[in-house]
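Lecture notes, part 5. Sequence design as translation. It can be helpful to think of inverse folding as translation between two languages: the language of shapes and the language of residues. The source text, in structure tokens, appears below.
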């Protein structure tokens, strides 16, 4: 999950509210949220204003009567969305060739981001050219070439002078819809980098300037965003390294405070791990309220067919190994199982995620084991006895112990899903025509 630490803390507060019997926990919950946001490096002034606004909104809605937990949660959700931004900053490809310039300091992840964006737009039918303008960092161009091979996208650039590289590559710009330029960085925004990036902007004449910043910058992100914004006129921001960082809130709110909105967030190391930033969806996932829409959207992008009957069985905790097999097969295509389950209400707690992550580690082997089962065994796992386990293990090339572990994980997952079945899940599933 992106911003895992911050999300874990916020979800704990939300769960405390949802498990309370009335409004007696509201002050305590708001204190927990305030602490979580400050620890997550969200600007203190922004946090103070947020908590004051939430209290004011609750008071106005409540009047002299009782305010339901769901209404309180709705206020918290909407007010947090406001400090992130009610709308993202989708890059509008309104002309071709459309030129995007990536800027940022060393270690921000510009080169990887360039390839991720190229892959993102290629999947949407655009002809993309990667332009390597980082002549400062050793092997930067070679890295871009290697990444481009993974997604079958052409690369231009290299050489010792980035402006000359632009001039030479510009002859082929007409053959592409989008040109993504990867510029050089430095440890700091010094005179050398300022002069270089100014020259690149003048020669390249980008339609869109995108600043790449890592989430672990914390509140230093505010200084970096402002400096680049003053220098180049930043159109949007990509936040990278959002997985596993404790202080990503600083980068997120610094972007909003600066007025340069976030367009994309990097969600992992793989080339497909990038997504357009949707503030409302992001806050939903941050608080553990929603996420199935993201899963289905990603499935659609990857052209993965989801068996709704199978999904329904799994969500209700009334599934067979056949249902589990179908979900495993889809999960392997969608990405890391822990990322997907972190989006699903009821499975986002540390305890439940540990169970699911353990399954994720054995995903390939479990699928191989189920390939060696009969249709009857998949549909009715209760019939799998010691003799059948021995046959399945031999047929799959796996140990009998691992076959037993699969069956044990299957039983535990059924229990977890039954415990997780609640109105929140039901309402989400109904959005997609699945009635639990």
């Amino acid at each position: 999950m992106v911003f895992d630490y911050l999300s874990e803390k916020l979800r704990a507060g939300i769960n405390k509210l949802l498990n309370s019997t009335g409004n007696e926990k509201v002050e305590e919950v708001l204190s927990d949220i305030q602490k979580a946001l400050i620890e997550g490096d969200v600007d203190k002034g922004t946090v103070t204003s947020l908590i004051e606004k939430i209290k004011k909104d609750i008071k106005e809605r409540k009047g002299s009567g009782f305010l339901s937990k769901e209404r309180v949660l709705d206020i918290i959700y909407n007010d947090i969305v406001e400090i992130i931004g009610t709308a993202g900053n989708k890059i509008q490809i309104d002309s071709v060739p459309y030129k995007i310039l990536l800027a940022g300091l060393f270690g921000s992840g510009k080169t990887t981001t360039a390839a991720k964006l190229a892959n993102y737009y290629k999947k949407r039918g655009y002809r993309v050219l990667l332009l390597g303008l980082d002549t400062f960092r050793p092997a930067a161009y070679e890295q871009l070439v290697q990444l481009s091979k993974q997604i079958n996208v052409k690369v231009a650039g290299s050489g010792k002078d980035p402006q000359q590289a632009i001039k030479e590559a510009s002859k082929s710009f007409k053959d592409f819809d989008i040109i993504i330029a990867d510029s050089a960085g430095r440890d700091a925004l010094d005179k050398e980098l300022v002069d270089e990036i100014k020259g690149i902007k003048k020669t390249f004449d980008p339609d869109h300037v995108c600043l790449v910043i890592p989430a672990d910058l914390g509140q230093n992100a505010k200084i970096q965003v402002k400096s680049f914004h003053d220098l180049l006129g930043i159109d949007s921001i990509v936040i990278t390294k959002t997985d596993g960082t404790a202080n990503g809130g600083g980068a997120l709110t610094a972007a909003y405070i600066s007025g340069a909105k976030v367009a994309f967030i990097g969600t992992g190391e793989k080339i497909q791990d990038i997504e357009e930033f949707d503030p409302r969806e992001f806050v939903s996932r941050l608080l553990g309220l929603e996420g199935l829409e993201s899963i289905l959207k990603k499935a659609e992008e990857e052209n993965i067919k989801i068996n709704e009957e199978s999904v329904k069985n799994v969500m209700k905790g009334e599934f067979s190994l056949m249902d589990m097999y179908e979900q495993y097969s889809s999960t392997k295509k969608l990405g890391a199982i822990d990322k997907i389950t972190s989006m699903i209400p009821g499975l986002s707690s540390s305890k439940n995620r540990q169970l699911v992550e353990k399954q994720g580690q054995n995903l390939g082997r479990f699928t191989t084991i189920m390939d060696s089962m009969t249709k009857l065994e998949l549909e009715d796992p209760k019939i799998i006895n010691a003799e059948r386990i021995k046959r399945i293990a031999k047929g799959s090339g796996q140990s009998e112990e691992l076959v037993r572990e699969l069956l044990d994980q299957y039983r535990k997952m059924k229990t977890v899903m039954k415990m997780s079945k609640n109105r929140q899940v039901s309402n989400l599933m109904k959005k997609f025509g699945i009635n639990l």
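The translated text above is only one of many valid answers, since several sequences can fold into similar shapes. Residues 343-351, 421-425, 427-436 have pLDDT under 50 and may be disordered.
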